[in-house]
Design goal:
Blueprint (H helix, E strand, L loop, with lengths): L9 H12 L6 E6 L5 H13 L13 H7 L6 E4 L12 H10 L5 H7 L11 H12 L8 E6 L6 H12 L5 E7 L7 H4 L3 E5 L13 H12 L3 H12 L4 H23 L9 H9 L4 H16 L5 H15 L1
Parallel strand pairs: 1-4, 1-5, 2-3, 3-4
Helix pairs in contact: 1-2, 2-3, 6-7, 9-10, 10-14, 11-12, 11-13, 13-14
The structure holds zinc ion (ZN).
């Protein structure tokens, strides 16, 4: 996978090649993508660029042995960690991951779960995975150069696994590059996130803002909630219920969830470049610290129920009631 094979995210590519060219590579990079947003191929392209000895023109050569091995996920010094079945290690599932990446490099989380034969389950990253990683990193690089660890969905670790990983990231072995790919930043251990350079990856073709045109409704809802104006908030709920389609109601939830994640990041002092809108920053100062997480659960539930033919007026009224109590 070369950068040239990836559409969009030109600013991300430029930032990544710049780090390598200038020799200022943060030892851990945390990519924040929406599910299926293409951070995985970007991570591969970055590693090819980092490892390639014939790079030119802001890209890896794509032909040397190192590029070939990284692209096919068979480089002995590039390790992959991702959520798997209980009691299993990622290395046992490399074959299905390779097949999936060959077919769909910008795979979605559910596609990986399916590919691993775990459909219907919630795969996790086990504590044993951190131990195994430590073992692997205690050996020297097999090809004598860089080593890398790609961790897909660090938010799917329990506290013990995350803390062990934190220790590794805090005291990284020399010439070892960590690349993390997260979907839900609010679920990544803040001490891990704060040690990483954060980079926002946007799905190719996506505008810089999520696809909900009427941001004003969220502003009005938040104003009413923060002002303890329940009637005002319920009025917004009525207007949400009257949106032209269930798809636009879902888009509202996606948009609101994105903003709430920004509120969470602002409250935690986690600053990604250009990631937090001034609005979210202002809300962060006024709502409870518990609000973003709990509100995200409410939005998640609302979005699920929208897909199930539930009466939208009742649904948005209920959502607003819950948010009113939480804020
Ligand atoms: Zn190469």
């Amino acid at each position: 996978m070369t950068f040239a094979q990836i559409q969009g995210n030109d600013d991300v590519k430029q930032a990544l090649t710049g780090m390598v060219d200038e020799g200022r590579i943060p030892h851990a990079i945390l990519f924040h993508e929406d599910d299926g947003g293409g951070a995985f191929p970007i991570a591969l392209a970055f590693l090819q660029y980092l490892f390639c000895r014939e790079r030119s023109g802001g890209d890896s050569c794509g032909r040397c042995p190192s590029c070939g091995k990284i692209g096919r996920l068979i480089h002995p010094d590039v390790h992959f960690v991702f959520p798997t079945a209980a009691g299993a290690l990622s290395e046992q599932f490399l074959e299905p991951l390779r097949r999936l990446v060959a077919e769909r490099p910008a795979f979605r989380e559910a596609e990986l779960t399916d590919a691993l034969g775990l459909a219907g389950k919630v795969p996790m990253i086990a504590v044993a995975e951190s131990r195994r990683l430590l073992e692997k990193l205690s050996l020297s690089a097999l090809e004598g150069g860089w080593r890398a660890v790609v961790i897909y969905l660090p938010e799917r670790m329990n506290a013990e696994a995350a803390n062990r990983l934190l220790k590794i990231i805090e005291e990284p072995p020399a010439q070892t590059q960590f690349l993390l790919i997260a979907h839900q930043m609010e679920r990544v251990l803040p001490t891990i996130a704060s040690r990483c350079q954060r980079i926002r990856v946007r799905a190719a073709g996506a505008a810089s803002a999520p696809g909900f045109a009427d941001a004003g409704l969220l502003d009005e809802l938040m104003d009413a909630l923060l002002g303890k104006d329940l009637l005002g908030a319920l009025d917004v709920a009525d207007r949400l219920a009257a949106l032209p389609s269930r798809e636009s109601a879902k888009s509202f939830c996606t948009f609101a969830a994105d903003r709430l994640r920004q509120v969470f990041l602002a409250q935690q002092g986690i600053e990604g470049a250009g990631e937090i809108s001034p609005q979210a920053r202002a809300w962060a100062a006024r709502c409870r610290k518990t609000f973003p997480r709990q509100a995200l659960e409410v939005l998640d539930r609302t979005q699920t129920l929208i897909g199930r033919n539930v009466n939208l007026k009742i649904l948005f009224t209920d959502m607003t009631d819950r948010l009113f109590l939480l804020i």
